[in-house]
């Protein structure tokens, strides 16, 4: 009975999260559409500046593009095009935005996932090692190293990666690692200081057994939430790294779009990234709650 | 404060004094070119040498330090003020207003910080005078950097809302504006200070990233980010390591902020 109620509650929570995601997504779409519509230079066509075009021809061109439509009508057309998978055309690259996203998303996805994997392994490994050894020297040196990495701008890490000819995912891992290490270390230390862990230590349980059986289950829900946040950090790091390492991913695309003021492109790239982020955060949050529920 | 924190605070003070006195310490104007000695090695006339355009590197570093160290705290102040105002009101009022503010915060937080800045920067003209580029960078960071502090402030204001002294103030007929300014804000002031100081290193790093990508402070005005654009060719840096001074200074300042703040979280 209790199990059924728990699963029903969890299902409801999942549905609520999905609804929230849809509402936020819709809000993001409308905000993006507004940004495109009211951006300086919206609808300015080079052809309109051509003196060979007569005024009535320019007017006909504008009518064809629907530039005089009001905001509700603009929203409607934007949303209906979006529902049909039409994300518009890039102003600078003169190619469909959907096609560009299909090409670039796997590149960034690949770098981000591999970079996250390396960063998580390194951060979790080092934090666990620090917890087990609890040595002053280890603690001080890792904190100093972490602080140094935190103080480096991502763009400088990218330039260093270009110089050392390291893959893009390594640069992403270097940027993400210090952000993860601090949180993971604090979480593990806090869990390690709990009374039941102290009791387990007093009973003579080994360090690895304490870590695996008592500390990790306690720290798992916030760690899962951190996993969602680390996605946002790594996607953010991908912009300067891909731009400077000349990697043809979403980060480089967003940078090129910003430099050429290609609003339809950058707005849609941002929209896709924010939806991926929201989905990742929601999944991580749900997984954390499910884990917390199962351990209770 | 432990001795290390005192040392970090002293270093920060020294760098800020250097920034204030930059005008008197500048050997030459930051944009003046010595066309006959581009990429010069350090000398008595140019202690940090000259850049590729023959400009004195020390003058550019001193002026760039001033730009970066004024820009980041100014942007941090603006973002903290926005977060303090919105977060306090949302926490105090609760209900639909709090839900809307938190949903907007969730939406903004879902977006990586640099993506958000790129979108806004793309809506603004790029070919602007250097001073305008500084103002744009400051406004962008200040107006968009409120998301992380607002959650913390809103949660704290929610705690104040349920407190006994606020109940007493309400029952005494205090108006909402007075509740906010006279009771909520003074109690949350330490939190505002912490959020302000946490934002500074984040904005220093963001300015550096934006300027390296060509979307921040524009030439010829120097900033730490601008000065690091020359690092693209790391091989030349081995022969002229004094060019790393802007990066070293930036790292020292950000590390000092990390040391001074007890439990800060640089998120991006």
How is this structure best summarized?
Chain A is mainly alpha-helical and about 300 residues long. Helices cover about 80% and strands about 0% of the residues of chain A.
If you had to describe this structure to a student in words, what would you say it looks like?
The complex is a heterodimer of chains A (296) and B (268). Chain A is an all-alpha fold. Helix content of chain A is 82%, strand content 0%. Chain A has 12 helices and no strands. The longest helix of chain A has 39 residues, at 207-245. Chain A is flat and about 90 Å long. Chain B has 268 residues and is mainly α. At the A-B interface, α1, α6, α7, α8 and α10 of A face α4, α5, α9 and α12 of B.
Number of strands of chain A: 0
- The first-to-last residue Cα distance of chain A is 16 Å
Could you describe the largest sheet of chain A, including whether it forms a barrel?
Answer: none
Average residue pLDDT of chain B: 86
Q: For the CA atoms, what is the radius of gyration of chain A? A: 25 Å
Low-confidence stretches of chain A: none
Structural class of chain B: mainly alpha
Q: How many β-strand runs of chain B?
A: 0
What shape does the CA trace of chain A take?
flat
> What is the helix tally of chain B?
12
- Please report the distance between the alpha carbons of the first and last residues of chain B: 27 Å
Q: What overall form of chain B do the CA principal axes indicate?
A: elongated
Main sheet of chain B?
none
Q: Strand percentage of chain B, roughly?
A: under 5%
């Amino acid at each position: 009975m209790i199990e059924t109620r728990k699963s029903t509650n969890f299902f409801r929570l999942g549905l609520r999260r999905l609804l929230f995601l849809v509402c936020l997504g819709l809000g993001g779409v409308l905000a993006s559409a507004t940004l495109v519509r009211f951006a300086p230079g919206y609808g300015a066509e080079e052809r309109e500046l051509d003196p060979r075009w007569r005024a009535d021809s320019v007017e006909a061109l504008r009518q064809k593009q629907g530039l005089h439509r009001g905001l509700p009508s603009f929203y409607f057309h934007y949303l209906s095009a979006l529902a049909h998978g039409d994300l518009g055309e890039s102003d600078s690259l003169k190619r469909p935005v959907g096609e560009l996203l299909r090409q670039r998303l796997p590149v960034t996805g690949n770098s981000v996932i591999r970079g996250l994997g390396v960063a998580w392994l390194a951060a979790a490994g080092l934090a666990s090692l620090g917890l087990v050894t609890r040595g002053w020297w280890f603690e001080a040196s890792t904190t100093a190293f972490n602080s140094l990495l935190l103080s480096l701008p991502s763009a400088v890490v990218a330039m260093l990666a270009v110089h050392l000819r390291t893959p893009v995912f390594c640069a992403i891992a270097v940027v993400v690692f210090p952000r993860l290490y601090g949180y993971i270390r604090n979480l593990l230390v806090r869990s390690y200081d709990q009374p039941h862990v102290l009791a387990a230590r007093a009973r003579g349980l080994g360090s690895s057994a304490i870590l695996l059986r008592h500390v990790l289950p306690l720290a798992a829900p916030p760690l899962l939430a951190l996993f969602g946040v680390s996605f946002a950090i790594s996607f953010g790091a991908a912009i300067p790294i891909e731009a400077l390492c000349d990697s043809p991913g979403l980060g480089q695309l967003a940078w090129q779009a910003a430099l050429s003021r290609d609003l339809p492109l950058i707005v849609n790239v941002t929209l896709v990234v924010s939806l991926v982020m929201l989905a990742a955060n929601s999944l991580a949050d749900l997984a954390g709650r499910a884990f917390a529920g199962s351990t209770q | 404060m432990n001795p290390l924190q005192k040392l970090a605070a002293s270093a920060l003070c020294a760098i800020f004094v250097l920034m204030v006195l930059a005008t008197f310490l500048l050997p030459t104007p930051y944009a003046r070119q010595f066309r006959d000695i581009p990429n010069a090695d350090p000398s008595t006339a140019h202690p940090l040498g000259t850049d590729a355009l023959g400009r004195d590197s020390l003058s550019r570093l001193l002026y760039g330090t001033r730009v970066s160290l004024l820009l980041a705290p100014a942007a941090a102040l603006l973002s903290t003020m926005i977060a303090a105002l919105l977060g306090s009101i949302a926490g105090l009022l609760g209900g639909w207003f709090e839900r809307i503010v938190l949903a907007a915060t969730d939406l903004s937080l879902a977006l990586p910080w640099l993506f958000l800045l790129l979108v806004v920067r793309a809506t603004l003209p790029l070919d602007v005078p250097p001073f305008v580029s500084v103002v744009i960078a400051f406004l962008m960071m200040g107006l968009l950097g409120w998301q992380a502090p607002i959650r913390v402030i809103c949660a704290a204001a929610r705690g104040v809302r349920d407190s006994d002294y606020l109940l007493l103030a309400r029952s005494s007929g205090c108006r909402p504006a007075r509740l906010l300014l006279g009771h909520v804000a003074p109690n949350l002031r330490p939190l505002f200070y912490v959020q302000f100081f946490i934002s500074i290193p984040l904005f220093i790093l963001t300015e550096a990233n934006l300027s390296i990508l060509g979307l921040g402070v524009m030439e010829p005005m120097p900033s730490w980010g601008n000065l690091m654009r020359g690092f693209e060719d790391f091989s030349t840096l081995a022969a002229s390591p004094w060019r790393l001074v802007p990066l070293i200074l930036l790292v020292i300042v950000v590390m000092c902020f990390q040391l001074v703040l007890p439990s800060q979280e640089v998120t991006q």
